[in-house]
Amino acid sequence: MPPSGAPDLVVNGNLANGRVWHLPVWQRRLPGLGSQSMSSSLLFPKGTDVRDVSTTTGPDIIECPAGTGRLYWVTYVDDIARGFGNEHRWVVMQKVWTYDAFSIYRWPTPIP
């Protein structure tokens, strides 16, 4: 089922990853996710409450940049440099979309 209501997080983030590679993300039985898709990632301050598919509540949905209607599922969260001064949270995301006969969610067109 596509997301309904407000996203869990609305952020002004930079989706440009510099030297970080986009990862192929494999997911099963999540609405709007195909078998494989490329990812985007965001960096957050340490301790930011962002939840991925491994949590009991399921993945968060992030709108980024704020106000655009561009929604992403959070597929992976990890802490980078834990215990060091540059500690931060790395969030890997996958575009939310549906593509079958029951398509309820589509990204805005043209993509903002």
State the end-to-end distance.
Answer: 24 Å
Number of strands: 7
Inertia-based shape: globular
Largest sheet: 5 strands, mixed
Number of helices: 0
Structural class given helices, strands, pairing? Answer: mainly beta
Order of helices and strands: EEEEEEE
Oligomeric state of shown chains? single chain
**Largest sheet, spatial ordering of strands:** 1-5-6-7-4
Estimate nothing, just give the exact number of structural domains.
1
Sheet-strand content, in percent, reads: 25-35%
Feature tags:
mainly beta, five-stranded mixed β-sheet, 29% strand, globular
Summary, kept brief:
By secondary structure, this protein is mostly beta strands. 0% of the residues lie in helices and 29% in strands.
Explained architecture:
This protein is an all-beta fold and 112 residues long. The chain has one domain (9-95). Helices cover 0% and strands 29% of the residues. Strands 1-5-6-7-4 form a five-stranded mixed sheet, with no helix packed on it. It has a two-stranded antiparallel sheet with strand order 2-3. A hairpin with a 7-residue loop joins strand 6 (71-80) and strand 7. The chain is globular and about 40 Å long. It starts with 8 loop residues before the first strand and ends in a 17-residue tail after the last strand.
Topology:
Elements: E1 9-10, E2 25-26, E3 36-37, E4 40-45, E5 61-63, E6 71-80, E7 88-95
Parallel strand pairs: 1-5
Antiparallel strand pairs: 2-3, 4-7, 5-6, 6-7
